[in-house]
Design a protein that fits this description.
The protein has 450 residues and is of the alpha+beta class. The protein contains 15 helices and 11 strands.
Length: 450
């Protein structure tokens, strides 16, 4: 066996691997013997097919399989031993000639895309901004309100106020204001006036009480929306397009959503029994939650600024463009050339960031274990539950949900990448010099708009 590795540029190389029969013949003979034991051909019992016939019938196929195995072992073994900083997978060279597996010598030529060389190491001489978000009383108020809204309940009331839901009998009227014979009628028609699109129709519901009868125009209320009208009146969209009349509406029921009160029962529901015992403690716990949430946002922004800083410091890199485009085509066989051209620049920028993160991980000694990925999955699961006000979920339930995420390949890859970035964000704060600033959440959001 012989391997020749020649760099054709700073970011590309050609690797030629030559095999002699001695490199694979023994494996071919063994594979033929193993296959002979179970091979069945007309006129021969299993295991009794002559080896000469085996070689004639299956020799080239088995040789190709064994050569491929040897080729893969030697190729990747060489790349590992020589620590070739390769991008993607080796590509069969366009110089490659058809392989004759009966020849004494086999030659395989590969094109190798090489990573550009640069230094992404950071020290305390590098200054990166770190933004702390100012948690205001108004933000705490908003989060407390969100909790009470999610923990509220519906109750029947006598008089309508904005936001209430009404239910009653609706009937189409004629031009004289009388119920139209044969017209549209519906029992238990549900109306939420807050969703009306015109204020004049909304005002007709102000201050009304149960058993009140009012006249309004559904078509005006919904600005002629056939979908809204068909849902309200129980008719088809085609029929709704011709509805323009006034309707009477007898209110039989008014329902109001009442937010939860800040009671001990509510505190126990949100944070667990006895964890907080007063409104002040509840608000303090909410403030801690916001602080933890925004700490993650700050960490995310910090890593963005690390990326911007290093990309600017590194400058423009040389890439093996044609080889990388060939790799993209190979990885996306169902997509055309337009896809490659449209997505290439963005893919290269993400590849650059990936290489930067690899250097930073090596510098800081970051390693990602299974437990780290599971913890990232658990954090993501907790955040998903928290969106619905469910902050008191038992750890075994969180763990079960997290383990389900890890079974999905795409989610697993995303969680591994997130884990690396989470660890980098934490570790690099102790490596670089931080330019720490406390800003409002609104100003923090503007950083992303820029």
């Amino acid at each position: 066996m012989n391997i020749q590795f020649n760099k054709t540029s700073d970011v590309a190389a050609e690797l030629t691997l030559s095999l002699e029969k001695a490199d694979y013949q023994e494996r071919v003979e063994k594979a033929l013997k193993d296959y002979r034991k179970k091979a069945t051909l007309p006129g021969f019992r299993p295991g009794q097919v002559p080896m000469s016939l085996m070689k004639k019938r299956f020799g080239n196929e088995i040789t190709a399989e064994e050569v491929q195995k040897v080729l893969s072992e030697k190729l990747y073994g060489y790349l590992r031993e020589e620590k070739v900083d390769m991008l993607g997978e080796p590509l069969a060279s366009e110089k490659q000639q058809p392989v004759d597996f009966e020849a004494d010598n086999l030659e395989f030529i590969f094109d190798i895309a090489l990573a550009p060389q640069f230094d992404a190491k950071l020290t305390d001489k590098d200054t990166i901004p770190f933004y702390h978000i100012d948690i205001t009383d108004e933000m705490v108020d908003g989060q407390v309100k969100a909790y009470t809204q999610r923990g509220g309940h519906y109750e029947k009331v006598d008089t309508y106020q904005e936001g209430d839901m009404t239910k009653g009998h609706i009937a189409e009227l004629d031009e004289n204001g009388n119920i139209l014979e044969g017209g549209i009628q519906k029992e238990d028609a549900v109306i939420l006036p807050n969703y009306f699109k015109t204020d004049d129709q909304k005002k007709k519901f102000e201050g009304i009480s149960v058993n009140t009868v009012i006249t309004f125009n559904p078509s005006d209320a919904y600005e002629g929306s056939a979908i809204e009208l068909s849902t309200l009146l129980g008719i088809t969209k085609e029929e709704a397009e011709n509805v323009h009349a006034n309707f009477s509406y007898q209110i039989n029921e008014i329902t109001r959503y009442v937010p939860a009160q800040l009671t001990q029962e509510f505190f126990d529901t949100v944070f667990g029994e006895g964890v907080v015992k007063s409104e002040d403690e509840f608000r303090a716990r909410v403030r801690e939650q916001l602080k933890a949430q925004f700490e993650g946002e700050s960490q995310f922004r910090f890593l963005i600024d690390v990326r911007k800083y290093l990309e600017n410091r590194i400058g423009e890199l040389q890439w093996p463009d044609e080889l990388l485009k060939r790799i993209m085509r190979a990885n996306n066989p169902d997509k055309g050339e337009e896809y490659v051209e449209k997505n290439y620049d963005g893919s290269v920028k993400e590849l650059e960031w990936h290489l930067i993160k690899e250097q930073l991980a090596d510098q800081t000694g970051i390693k990602v274990e299974q437990e780290d990925v599971l913890e990232s999955a658990k954090e993501q699961t907790r955040a998903q539950f928290a969106q619905y006000g469910m902050t008191n979920i038992p750890d075994d339930v969180i763990t079960n949900y997290a383990n389900e995420q890890l079974k999905k390949r795409e989610q697993l890859d995303n969680l591994v990448a997130r884990t690396v970035e989470r660890k980098l964000g934490t570790t690099l704060r102790d490596v670089v010099k931080l330019d720490e600033k406390t800003i409002s959440f609104a100003d923090f959001q503007k950083l992303f708009e820029a």
